[in-house]
Design a protein that fits this description.
13 strands; 27% strand
Length: 302
């Protein structure tokens, strides 16, 4: 949660789920701050811990770009006064659009201005639109600011579009829309030790299961550990050369030999090198991995 305490001050409040805090979200945050400065008001973001689809259509809930902790930290970096990360409950889900405004939003916050994106929906079954919000603003005396689509290279920037890029392995395109490279953070855990056996030690990380992952394959990555940025080769997949091998995220870190078990690292994805391949033998697999290591060193490091 935010380190500041809200005491009912007049507030300019941005609404949305903010998964990824992408460039469109960042524009929304900048507009919220600008309005707050003009009016001399506090600023904030009201968002949810759970994606609303977890309650509405659980089978269609997207895997997310950022965890709640990452999302909150990123929003705070943009300088709004408050981040309200609220639970999305069944009671809240069933509120009509007007009840959402009167019985939830206005009871919790002294809203002066609400700032939303062009496709914002709210209330039971998403029946409330930006037009509904404007009507309710007039009725209950708060202003509404609606931002148009944020377009880059003919694409409307959205969390859905960025998730598609990530899941297709197009990680080198993500920065254009997210404003940074896609990254995963996790604790290094004990793997099967196969890399060590063949002289190619790797760091295996354990992740939040609801975080979206790039498609299986080999990637050039940057590994962030204790303030260092190191070059890496990351393999995501089931390693089909071995029977019944569990899904894993394994990273070979260049020019590095420290013991980092139980330490948290962040893997920043730069470019996909190849898809996952099933090899006829372990020797063929090791030969290919060594070729991948050499190719990345040649193309990106040396």
């Amino acid at each position: 949660m935010t380190t500041k305490t809200y005491h009912g001050e007049e507030i300019v409040l941005a609404l949305g789920f903010f998964d990824g805090v992408h460039l469109g979200h960042q524009a929304l945050l900048e507009e919220t701050k600008r309005i707050g400065q003009r009016l001399g008001c506090k600023t904030g973001v009201m968002t949810f811990k759970e994606h609303p689809l977890e309650l509405i259509f659980p089978n269609y809930t997207p895997w997310l770009i950022t965890s709640n902790a990452e999302k909150e930290a990123m929003i705070q970096e943009y300088g709004v006064d408050f981040v309200f990360l609220n639970p999305f409950t069944e009671k809240l889900m069933k509120l009509t659009p007007e009840k959402f405004i009167t019985d939830y939003l206005l009871k919790k916050y002294n809203v002066k201005v609400v700032v939303v994106g062009f496709n914002y929906n709210f209330g039971y079954k998403g029946a409330g639109t930006t037009d509904t919000l404007k009507e309710l603003g007039k009725k209950y005396d708060f202003a509404v600011e609606i931002l148009p689509p944020f377009i880059i290279n003919t694409h409307s920037v959205s969390s859905t579009f960025i998730r598609e890029l990530i899941s297709c392995g197009q990680v080198d395109e993500v920065k254009t829309f997210l404003g940074r490279n896609y990254a995963l953070s996790g604790v290094v855990v004990q793997g099967k030790g196969l890399g060590h056996q063949f002289g190619i030690p790797t760091a295996n990380i354990k992740l939040d299961k609801k975080i979206i992952l790039p498609s299986t394959g080999v990637y050039y990555t940057h590994v962030h550990y204790r303030g260092k940025c190191l070059n890496g080769l990351t393999n995501l997949g089931f390693n089909p050369t071995f029977e019944k091998h569990p899904f894993s995220i394994e990273t070979y870190i260049y020019d590095f030999d420290e013991d980092i078990y139980n330490q948290e690292i962040t893997i920043e994805f730069k470019k996909k090198i190849r898809d996952e391949i099933k090899f006829d033998s372990i020797d063929d697999l090791i030969t290919q991995i060594k070729m991948d290591i050499d190719q990345i060193r040649k193309d990106f490091i040396d």
